[in-house]
Amino acid sequence: MSKFLFTDNDWTFPRLDAVTEAIAVIAAEELHLDTYPNQLEVISAEQMLDAYASIGLPVYYAHWSFGKQRAIESGQYRRGEMGLAYELVINSDPCISYLMEENTMTMQTLVIAHAAFGHNAFFKNNAFFRQWTDAEGIIDYLAFAQRYIAQCEERFGMDAVTDVLDAAHAISRNGIDRARRPRQLSAREEEQRWQERERYLEQQVLEIWRTLPPAHTTSTHSPDLFPSEPQENLLYFIEKNAPHLEGWKREILRIVRKITQYLYPQGQTKIMNEGFACFVHYHIMHSLHAKGLLTDGTLLEFYASHTAVVMQPDFDDRRYSGLNPYALGFAIFQDIKRICVAPTEEDRRWFSFAGDPDWLKHIHFAMREFRDESFVLQYLSPKVMRDLHLFSLHNAVDEATYRVSAIHDDAGYQHLREALAQQIADSSRPPDIQVISVDRWGDRQLRLKQMDQQALDLEEAQKTLGYLQELWGYDVHLDIEDQTLTVPQPRSGDEP
Amino acid sequence: MSTIIDRRSSGTRSTSNQERLQRRVRARLKSAVEKMARSGSIEDLANADQPISIPTRDLHEPSFRRDFSDSSWERVLPGNKEYQRGDEINKPEGGGAGQGREGSPDGLGDDEVAIVLSADEFLDLLFDGLALPNLRKTAQGDVQAEQWRRAGFIKDGSPSRMHVGRTMRAARARRLALRAGKRRELQELEEARSKLREEISTRIARKEDVSLEQERLKNLEEQISILTRKIKAIPFIDEADLRFAHIDQQPHPITNAVMFCVMDVSGSMGEKEKDLAKRFFLLLYLFLHRHYQAVQIVFIKHHSTATECTEQAFFGAREGGGTLVSPAIMLTEEIMAKRFPVDRWNVYVAQVSDGDNYFADNTVVAEHLHQLLPRLRNLFYLEVNRENESDLLQLYDGIAEDYPELITARASAREDIYPLFRTLFSSEEIPSHV
């Protein structure tokens, strides 16, 4: 009797069950994966587009920008410019993975291995996720956020809520405490807390201004600065310190901040997360085939999809749109295994663990302890650079040409590695803009300063300042190197 | 451990985001909708989902971000083929690092978002400010067709409609109800009798006197026989049990409508007049479309003769010659009689003309209108682009005094059409003309 899990390619619920079970065995026995319980949800293409529009979150508050996102994506999808992802997975406990109903049974198998075991294990074990997100509480919190914002729309009107959300979204990328570990979320506590907070804050709106100078001080200008040190989390600072913000608006800022924080690790671990999931599905699919559970035909179909996913077009290819995180991540993880199992002289020079037969230990270590930037810095090997034919290009503003600063040769490996890590760091981090002072004794203006050297898109920055000013209620200035940006004029001239 | 859930039936949840998006770009959607109303075909406008493209700059979401165009950077790229360290590569012309995408088939570039409006959303925008529910109410009432419908059961009716099941059920209930008490009584009596008989036999065995008991036994048996008779007398079926299926005549609204578009295509009707006509017909069609399940349109163009034609021919045609209105009215009557009997259709006629009519024809028109009007829901007459009222309009106004179904109006510019439509439908009293 054949042991094949399926021979024709239509998926059915019993088959999904059987496949998941078979994969779970391999994941546990061969890869020692520690995962959250899985919840697989079969959805249609339309629903997948919905999920795209709300960053994959199953529950999300309503905002026009999600509608815009969906309009763009469904347009591209209908025109055939964009294929939909085969899967989408949410960092929650239980871990929710979406399977598209259009997928063949082979694809569903691949997706389950990739998302429900690969990503799932990554979510549960990667240090960054462990530190920044609470998989257990997120769905409840999202439901709370959705409910709260809907209530606000009812009480204060859709337009008022939209204004606050627009402003909060504008500065949301600067709403993260990079240096500090965030508090865990709990929907119920949150709900109780906001009610108390709202009541309290409404009585205390002017709290920070009320600190009158002591009688013996002769100058009205207090020498002590507020804030006492620069604050990088703009959302948090506004939420706590804006002089006249109503309680519910503060709560909305808090919601946006919390959700941004929850999503933060995903942007920091894209290469690793996808790379690890690809590594896992690659191993599992082969193992299923080796056990005689998959037909050769299934394996061939899998190869076709797999190669399409981890393909890296060259820079001069029409299809090129940056480095493919799937390709890079998969290549590095595969290479870690190779370095353990079949190291070359070169590997021994570069990696202390080369030749250690326990490759799984090193894969797990890499998956747990890094984020993209450090991962590349640690594990990008000469072989991978050679395979991908990496080279780096340097652009100086005042020169007429680009200069090739390094290629995949002995002289260039180290430079390439560092350049790529820097590039990843820059693209996953917003400009470093911090609050440096509030003129508490004067006109209450808020002063921000750009702390890094990179050029800022001034037009964008000015518009963003406009939003900040709306929330803050008084003038907001931004110091950039040699100039100060302000908001041009009050947006509506009819204000007294 | 894993759970598999089928979510496909729970549908999409994008409506609330969609609604907010449309709210944000309402002004732009509105002007796009009006533009389409001017150019599209009448039926397409009301039926199809309308994609409208909105420039993304209207929906821009600013944030603090880097500016790569004007600064030094270093980037790692894949796919090196021939470069060596230190090679210099010319910067692309224009200095832009990004590559623009070529236009896609439907003309949407990167900087545009297509928003798809449903037919209802489209109309809401088109009729912005017009209270649509109100529009519905003031429609001139529908033709009511009578239809036989089942209407429960009654106790009286013709034998042919007797409902056996219901009747038997009623009979059984009645029998059960009437018998139950008597049966219980009978049982008690019978028990008493058998006891008495036993007593009699024991007394006889003991050679005692039984005359008194015999007397009581006789008495009991008499009561039993009366009860048995009474029970037997309960009829198996009684007149009161009879049930008849009832059918009733109920009014049933006809949900089909037909709209006759009648237009003068003689030389005096230029492009501008036709544009006014089209807007008017469109609005009317859309309005009817909201009110009825299905709306058919018949286009009739006329100059000195009248013909039925397609929409393209209708708006495209420009024919010379004099103008006679009566042939168009007669053709309308003819088509109605043939294809749209008034007991099955709600018939609307919309006529646009510049008012030119051969003078002698007016009496013929009046005569036919008197026949036609009682069979119509409404006849809308729009006179376009004319400085003073024509004889034809005065004639129509005269008739309108007797027939409220006839509604006349004048318009000379595109902007007149919306307000005109508004007054036609949103006020209780219908103005004779504007």
From TrEMBL, chain A:
Signal peptide: none annotated. Residues 431-481 form the SpoVR-like C-terminal domain. InterPro entries: Spore_V_R (IPR007390), SpoVR-like_C (IPR057008), SpoVR_N (IPR056174), Ycgb-like (IPR057270). This is SpoVR family protein. Residues 10-425 form the SpoVR protein-like N-terminal domain.
From TrEMBL, chain B:
It comes from the Bacteria. InterPro entries: UPF0229, vWFA_dom_sf. Residues 179-230 form a coiled coil. Pfam families: DUF444. Keywords: Coiled coil. Residues 1-24, 41-109 are annotated as: Disordered. Residues 57-73, 82-91 have a biased composition (Basic and acidic residues). PANTHER family: UPF0229 PROTEIN YEAH (PTHR30510). NCBIfam families: PRK05325.1-2 (NF003707). This is YeaH/YhbH family protein.
